[in-house]
Design goal:
Blueprint: H1 5-9, E1 21-22, H2 33-46, H3 56-76, E2 84-87, H4 90-105, E3 111-115, H5 120-133, E4 136-140, H6 150-157, E5 163-167, H7 179-188, E6 192-196, H8 208-211, E7 215-219, E8 230-234, H9 236-241, E9 252-255, E10 260-262, H10 276-291, H11 294-313, E11 318-321, E12 330-335, H12 340-349, E13 352-353, E14 355-357, H13 362-368, E15 373-377, H14 384-404
Parallel strand pairs: 1-13, 3-4, 3-5, 5-6, 6-7
Antiparallel strand pairs: 2-8, 7-8, 9-10, 11-12, 12-15, 14-15
The protein binds 4'-deoxy-4'-aminopyridoxal-5'-phosphate.
Catalytic activity: (sulfur carrier)-H + L-cysteine = (sulfur carrier)-SH + L-alanine
Pfam families: Aminotran_5 (PF00266)
Protein name: Cysteine desulfurase
């Protein structure tokens, strides 16, 4: 295998520094030159508002913006690009769904299932939708090993949920939900299925037609693209039937003071001037990722994460959470008896960026019996020396603790 993380890294200007080991990629990844250039070029050469413009600059901007949508449809192997809705990110995708789909399918006695490691961006919008409609939200619990509980899932499905939301890869743990096996079960139980792919898109190719879910949400900034842009993909028949989420320009067909009618997909769900440069940047990220050897990047990341897991497991006084062989991207740990924030500050002083806290998963933290954790999260540009540096800094911390005692 010829993948070289040091070579790969050269494409990321923000990483051309030697005072930072960046292991916070689940929060956001750095951006390759291809993305930076695409956005800069839009502002330098094509800047104009999209759609409806009679002038040539607007036509160029529209072509670039809609081109990005086509690229994303290809990136996801979506059946049609009109099903690709641009949003601000996973959070807005989930709010759109919970509001619009929620209004359509939830009522008194309805049930929404979310997994135990769902992000607040999933839990809170659906909790609010449930409160508005009289529906109930229930979690799919963890089993004793720290995976999603298969038996409990089957029991919950027997209750006939209207909506099942699965987080493909947990941002707090790096653990995987068995989406391939569980989505058909949820659909067989009559549920509409939603996948939070925020942590999945950077680590593995997404094939929506093979996956077979009804909706898929993700953010651009976690897959080497810009912030402020993401996608909600949905099945056309459902999107067509759903009411608009926000109202204003672009999403209408005709407006009078008495009534308005709404545009076709995807515009029906894209009110107002969109994040044009960001969508173009996300298209560039998707194009760039498709041009990489994704299999080789995934193999490198898997080897690196296994290495990190083994090295961290060998440290006395450190607890790992749901750290499985097939984790993707992230590992969560605590130094026993220490506040996660103290560990984070120590690591920062050693020039190592990890994330410490509840990772927007407070209910999961309660289940784990902790207030928070430290999380290392990798991307293709990380390498073994960086894991060694992390382990060395943690070893120092543990020695410092025990010396003190
Ligand atoms: N879901 C998951 C699994 C995430 O990791 C994140 C970001 N941490 C979100 C949802 C929310 O994404 P964003 O903040 O980009 O909207």
């Amino acid at each position: 295998m010829s993948f070289d993380p040091y070579d790969f890294r050269l494409q990321f200007p923000a990483l051309a520094r030697d005072d930072l080991i960046y292991l916070d990629n689940a929060a956001t990844t750095h951006k390759p030159t291809a993305v930076l250039e695409a956005m800069a070029q839009f502002y330098r050469q094509d800047n104009a508002n999209v759609h409806r413009g009679a002038h040539r600059l607007s036509a160029r901007a529209t072509r670039a913006f809609e081109g990005a949508r086509h690229t994303l449809a290809r990136f996801l192997n979506a059946p049609a690009s009109e099903e690709v809705i641009f949003t601000r990110g996973t959070t807005e995708s989930m709010n759109l769904l919970a509001n619009s789909l929620g209004q359509m399918v939830l009522d008194e006695g309805a049930l929404v299932l979310v997994d135990a490691w769902a992000h607040h961006a999933t839990i809170v919008p659906w909790q609010q939708a449930a409160a508005r409609t009289g529906a109930t939200l229930k979690p799919i619990p963890l089993d004793s090993k720290g995976r999603l509980d298969e038996v409990a899932f089957a029991e919950l499905l027997a209750l006939g949920p209207q909506v099942v939301v699965l987080t493909a890869i947990s941002n707090a743990l790096g653990a995987r939900a068995p989406v391939d096996r569980w989505l058909p079960k949820a659909q067989a139980a009559g549920a509409i299925t939603v996948v939070d792919g925020a942590q999945a898109v950077a680590h593995e190719p997404v094939d929506l037609q093979a996956l077979g879910c009804d909706f898929y949400a993700f953010s651009g900034h976690k897959m080497y693209g810009p912030t402020g842009i993401g996608v909600l993909w949905g099945r056309r028949d459902l999107l067509d039937a759903m009411p608009p989420y926000q109202f204003g320009g672009e999403m209408i067909q005709s407006v009078s003071f008495e009534r308005s009618s709404f545009n076709v997909l995807p515009f029906k769900f894209e009110a107002g001037t969109p994040a044009i440069a960001e969508a173009i940047g996300l298209g560039a990220a998707a194009n760039w990722l498709m041009a990489q050897d994704r299999r080789a990047i995934a193999a490198h990341e898997q080897a690196l994460l296994s290495y990190a897991r083994e090295r961290l497991q060998s440290l006395e006084g450190l607890t790992l959470y749901s750290a499985f062989e097939d984790n993707a991207g992230s590992l969560a740990f605590n130094v026993d008896g220490e506040h996660h924030q103290d560990v984070g500050i120590w690591l920062d002083q050693a020039g190592i960026a990890v994330r410490c806290g509840h990772h927007c998963c407070q209910p999961l933290m309660s289940l784990l019996g902790v207030r928070g954790t430290c999380r290392l999260s990798i991307a293709g540009y990380n390498h073994h020396d960086e894991i060694d540096a992390l382990v060395a800094a943690l070893t120092d911390y543990l020695e410092f603790l025990y010396d003190d005692a």
